[in-house]
Structure formats: C-alpha cells, structure tokens
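A further point concerns the way the authors explain their paired sequence and structure data. Each protein is reduced to its one-letter sequence and a matching series of backbone shape codes. An entry of this sort, consisting of the sequence and the corresponding backbone structure tokens, reads as follows:
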Amino acid sequence: MTTAGPRLSAVALIVPDYDPAIRFFTAAGFSLTEDIDQGHKRWVTVEPPGGGCRLLLARAEGAAQQAAIGAQGAGRVWLFLRTDDFARDHARLTAAGAVFEEAPRSEPYGTVAVWRDPFGNRWDLIQPVVPDI
C-alpha cells in the first residue's frame, strides 16, 4: 500500500571520500542506488538491504565538513539499522570493517549492539522483538 505525502528519502552522511564509503557500505550489504558525476562532486546514495531511507554519501569539503566526519551525532548513536537476523548482519558488518563497541545485549525492545562505521559514526544494530508487519 502506498500513501501520499512526504516521506524521508535520504540522510546525508559526511565521508572523507566517495569510493571508500561506497566500498564499506556495499560490503556491508547496502546497494549502490545512485552514483552521478556532477563535475565538482558526485550524487551518491546507498540503501540498506531491506530498503528504507537511503544514505547520501557526501564528500567533505573544507575544514568544517572535515571536522564533522564521524561527529554528526555529537558522540551519540544517531543511525539505527533494523534487522530480521542479528547474527547474519553482525557478521556482515564486522567483515566489512565495522567495529562493535559491545557484545549484543537484550533489551525490552529487542537485541541491540552499538557499532562504528570506518568513519566514526555510531550506529545501533537492532533486531526488534516485534518484527515488521
């Protein structure tokens, strides 16, 4: 069922350069959905295996953007990757170069663990108690 109205389609993630970010995210199972050369920059999006909001991989330009790499969440977990198979995606992320900060833990809402991508962003990998309907 499709509903009318706005929806969140992408979130910009500041990265040092496009190609290392593409390599990490595709190794982690994301699909490269767009890579459009715009001359001085590229429009690059990746999408998680189950769909949902895309990440716009934005190459940092200038000192302020360089300083924001890995700090967009101000040290907090700010990206949340939902899964239907925690063990599968934990292994896939680890093999791709993600670093888990903790062992998986059980919470009332599901199984979760905090991890960092190679650029320093903190994420939660979550397998909810109640699966998507």
About this structure: The helical segments are 18-27, 62-68, 86-96. The two ends are 12 Å apart (CA to CA).
